[in-house]
């Protein structure tokens, strides 16, 4: 797993767009970038995944610059139910990560009314 | 409901006890994972089982012992745990060979408290 750095927390209001940037300077050629969402007392849930450029699905968009050293998860028009912790995961083969198999700290997003 | 179930959902045990956590996936996936999530710490991958390989995080102490009898069932055997092992233990599965690029489907977790 490539080491990732995300902001610890972000506040937003209903209806706004939330952008969370994840830094992964030592991303490897075969690594993919995956974002997960986690609510309290639940397991993480897949949101979106990408390798390069832009990916969009019904929930979010993922922007990845050409150097792939960072990525930005964009949540359009958030609602109160989007309050959660968002994790950026960068990797390919688990074995290649050795004993540094962590997701990263995640970003706690609080959506206010 | 993600198709991954974990039992028990809550567990309290003493440091001398032996217990096991169980995970079952109903998705036909080939890989299964154990994660540990402690308060205010990153989600830590403990073990991966797949058709291709078994991966262990070298920092996981030997008092945690995984078992994967088939691709649908995964166990985590616990013995002589320490209070710092109290955490949420999450199981996940993915369709392929256990690569981290695969979408993982997580269970609800087992909340473990070691006294």
Gist of the model:
Chain A has 113 residues and is mainly beta. Chain A has no helices and 9 strands. Chain B is an all-beta fold.
End-to-end C-alpha gap of chain B: 31 Å
Oligomeric state of the chains in view: heterodimer
- Uncertain runs of chain B are none
Order of helices and strands of chain B: EEEEEEEEEEE
Rounded radius of gyration of chain A (Å):
14 Å
Structural class estimated from helices and strands of chain A: mainly beta
How much helix is in the residues of chain A? under 10%
Measured between the Cα atoms of the first and last residue of chain A, the distance is: 36 Å
Q: Could you tell me the number of beta strands of chain B?
A: 11
DSSP summary: helix tally of chain B? 0
Report the principal-axis shape of chain A: globular
The portion of residues forming beta strands of chain B comes to over 45%
**Sequence stretches where pLDDT stays below 50 over 5 or more residues of chain A:** none
Tell me, briefly, the overall form of chain B. globular
**Beta-strand content of chain A:** over 45%
Helical segment tally of chain A?
0
Order of helices and strands of chain A: EEEEEEEEE
Strand order, largest beta sheet of chain A = 1-9-8-3-4
Q: Based on helices, strands and strand pairing, what is the structural class of chain B?
A: mainly beta
Q: Can you give a write-up of this model?
A:
The complex is a heterodimer of chains A (113) and B (115). Chain A is mostly beta strands. In chain A, 0% of the residues lie in helices and 46% in strands. Chain A has no helices and nine strands. In chain A, the strands form two sheets. In chain A, strands 1-9-8-3-4 form a five-stranded mixed β-sheet, with no helix packed on it. A four-stranded antiparallel β-sheet of chain A has the order 2-7-6-5, with no helix packed on it. The radius of gyration of chain A is 14 Å and the shape is globular. In chain B, the strands form two sheets. In chain B, strands 2, 4, 5, 6, 9, 10 and 11 form a seven-stranded mixed β-sheet that branches. In chain B, strands 1-3-8-7 form a four-stranded antiparallel β-sheet, with no helix packed on it. In chain B, a hairpin with a 4-residue loop joins strand 5 and strand 6. Chain B is 0% helix and 53% strand. By secondary structure, chain B is mainly β. The radius of gyration of chain B is 13 Å and the shape is globular. Chain B contains no helices and eleven strands. The interface between A and B is medium-sized, with 29 and 29 residues.
